[in-house]
Amino acid sequence: MATLIEARGLTKRFGNTTALDGVSFQVGSGRIVGLIGPNGAGKTTALKAILGLARCEGSLSVLGLDPYHDRDRLAERVSFIADVAVLPRWLKVQNAIDFVAGVHPRFRADRCQAFLERTSIKRTSRVRELSKGMITQLHLALVMAIDAQLLVLDEPTLGLDILSRKRFYDSLLSDYMDAERTILVTTHQVEEIEHILTDLLFIDRGRVVLDLPMDDIPAHYAQLLVAPDRAEAARALKPLGERQLLGRHVFLYENADHAALAALGEVRQPSIADLFVAKVQGGAA
Asked: How many domains is the chain partitioned into structurally?
C-alpha cells in the first residue's frame, strides 16, 4: 500500500497557542480516514497544511510533494470540499459546470451531471433559486467530479437532510472510491460514517490521541455493561471511562483481558462516538 500522506513532527503555533504539537501520522492509498476531534483540536490546521494552505514546522509529504511549495501541482491531484460552500448567487448551474471544466484538467462534466441527475437541481437554475441543501449538493457534484487521488472532506454534508447525506456517502463508495484513491474526512456526525471508514485518527489539543485501522479496534478496545453490584469490580480493571445507561454501568477499556470483562457482564465493541469521548474527554459517550 502506497503512502499518500506522511506527517512527521508537524507543529504549528499562533502566538502562545499551539494548534499542532508534533503530530505524526501516515495515510495510505485506498483508505477512508476519519479525522475526528473537538472544536479547536487542530483538525482545520492539519487540513490546511495538507492542502498547502499553511506552513508548519516538521515534515509533510502529500502525494510525494511538499504541499506548501508545490501547491499548484498538488491542486491538480487533490479535491477539497469545505464545510461552507460559497457560490455566487447570480451564477447558473451550467455556468458553474463550464467554469470548473475550463480551469481544472481532471474535471469530468459527465460525472458531475450524473450526480446532479439524482437531485432536483436544474442546469438553468441560479444559485439564489436553490435551497441551502441544493447549493451544498451542487458544490459536492462539482468537486466530486474531479478525478483526484486524494479527496479531503471537511464536514461535507453540512446543510443536507438525512436522506441526502446517506445518498452522498453511498455515491462516495459506489462512484468515487477505488483502490487508488484516498478520502480524508472530518465530521461531527461520526455515527453516519462509521460504516465506511477504514482508519481512525483522533486529534485533541494539537496531538494525535488515537491512530488505528478500524479492523484493529476490537483487539484493543472493549465496552462492558454491568449491573450496579458489579460496578466496583469493573472499576478495579481501570477503565478509560464510565457512564450509566438504563440502570446499568457502562465502562470502556483499552487492552483489557476480554475474559475478565466477560466474567462481569456483557462485552461489546465500542462505537466511534464512545471511543472518541473516552479518549478525548475521559468518559464513554
From this structure: 2
Give 248's strand partners.
245
Same structural domain for residues 201 and 270? no
Strands 221-226 and 78-81: unpaired
What pLDDT does 236 receive? Answer: 95
Contact 22, 58 (CB under 8 A): yes
Are 10 and 68 in a shared domain?
yes
Domain of residue 221 covers 216-280
pLDDT at residue 265, rounded to an integer: 95
State which amino acid sits at residue 47: L
Banded model confidence at residue 284, pLDDT cuts 50, 70, 90: very low
* Contact between 252 and 223 (Cβ < 8 Å): yes
C-beta pairs of 258-267 under 8 Å, 24+ apart in sequence: 258/222, 261/222, 261/224, 261/234, 261/237, 264/224, 264/226, 264/230, 264/233, 264/234, 264/237, 265/224, 265/225, 265/226, 265/227, 265/230, 265/234, 266/224, 266/225, 266/226, 267/222, 267/223, 267/224
Q: pLDDT per residue over 165-223, tens digit each?
A: 888 888 788 877 877 889 999 988 888 889 899 999 999 999 999 999 999 999 999 99
Radius of gyration over every alpha carbon of the chain, rounded to an integer in angstroms: 21
- Which set of grid coordinates corresponds to residue 267? 462485552
Residue 158 and residue 264 share a domain: no
| SS3 label, residue 273 | helix
Rounded CA separation 108/113 (Å): 9
End residue of a domain, out of 148, 170, 205: 205
The CATH number that applies at residue 107 is: 3.40.50.300
